[in-house]
Write a structure and sequence with these properties.
alpha/beta, 6-stranded parallel beta sheet, DNA-binding
DNA sequence: GCGAGGAGATGACGATTGTCATGCCCGATC
DNA sequence: GATCGGGCATGACAATCGTCATCTCCTCGC
């Protein structure tokens, strides 16, 4: 019997996935959580063997949850199930120790098979997405450029960004300028769109 | 027997919802589509009585699909099932003839009951969301301000926006200025965030 | 010790943006 | 037909933004 934990913040989808897996006679859903920071605890007490993790979750995102599982409960295999096929997400997920990466666009029948393969120790990755991730390459952004860009997504003006990342306003503009150039954008709003699309935020 | 059509673009979620509804013995899933523009056709041939519609779909969004159903197949009751509790979405959904509005955050057990109520001719609306929609009021934006804001979300510079909506660059800035003031924002990026949050785009 | 190089800051610049006053055109209303 | 208001445009202005050259620290490697 494969003991599965489901981590997904939308209760309706969580319940629906559980019902989908309930149809399989070699799979048992032993835990359901709606927040990323409850994953490790629930996986331990329910003795899960596979963790099905959404990325967008409150508390802790699915990639970070996979990293914690890998370090604290390495016998639990993580399978990321997410909406967005951002190459950067796939890369970070694999680096975090996830064993599989599945899109919610994939047909429902594929889920149980993917769980079985991950449970058997194999890796499950959408081939097209893997190719895209390799072609995409890594983020060209410096760590500071990345931080400033993230702050720019939350705060409107350069002065606010500067206050939030503890830099001077001019330096913020310098980093933003670098990010804009590297991303081929024409202003910070476009740079944010591009970075978000590629999963580099 | 309640004959349900499921319209949801993410195949995995669509299949999971179908499996969830399959557990109910008075509900039958008679059609599944992944695009909004296939809803009316599928509902007609499958003789559905309730349409479960996601909002974010390619081809035609769920709200527009509900409007088409209401005019072409008025005997089919629409139930919107969506991720975002944006008050503007609820308002537009109801105006489009939808009979229910459910969030994916709601517990899975609620789905079958909501479908039964909608099928029986009742309305199903999350009370908290309804209150928020009433408190929120309607969008304060002019039709032109709305158009320009939408164009601003796609095109980066004022000149590009102007070309896209067939206005002069100065006029575009005037409308953006009005939208920024009405939304309490401090620049166009913040105005876009606020409008998107409230479902006014 | 010393040079290289990265992080951060500064100041200047031109371009873009946000704001405002003003004017024109046109359909609606009285 | 006069008036009003909305849609659209223009021009001017200050503030902000994007870019660049330059400077100071600090750290690392030799």
């Amino acid at each position: 019997m494969i003991r599965v934990l489901i981590a997904e913040d939308q209760a309706m989808v969580r319940g629906a996935l559980a019902s989908l897996l309930g149809l399989e006679d070699d799979i048992e859903v032993v835990a359901e959580v709606g927040r990323g920071d409850l994953v490790v605890e629930a996986a331990r007490t329910a003795r899960a063997t596979v963790a099905l993790l959404d990325i967008e979750m409150p508390g802790l995102d699915g990639i970070a949850a996979a990293a914690r599982l890998a370090s604290e409960l390495p016998e639990v295999r993580s399978l990321i199930l997410t909406t967005f096929g951002r190459p950067g997400f796939l890369r970070r997920a694999i680096e975090s120790g996830a064993r599989g990466f599945l899109l919610k666009d994939a047909p429902a029948e594929q889920l149980a098979d993917a769980i079985r393969e991950v449970d058997a120790g194999q890796r499950v990755i959408d081939p097209a997405l893997a190719a895209a991730a390799i072609a995409e390459g890594d983020s060209p952004l410096t760590e500071r450029e990345h931080d400033v860009l993230v702050a720019a997504a939350l705060h409107a003006t350069a002065a606010e960004i500067a206050a939030h990342v503890h830099l001077s306003e001019g330096t913020v503009r310098n980093y933003l300028s670098g990010a804009i150039r590297k991303l081929g954008a024409r202003n910070r709003a476009e740079a944010l769109r591009i970075a978000a699309e590629k999963g580099w935020l």
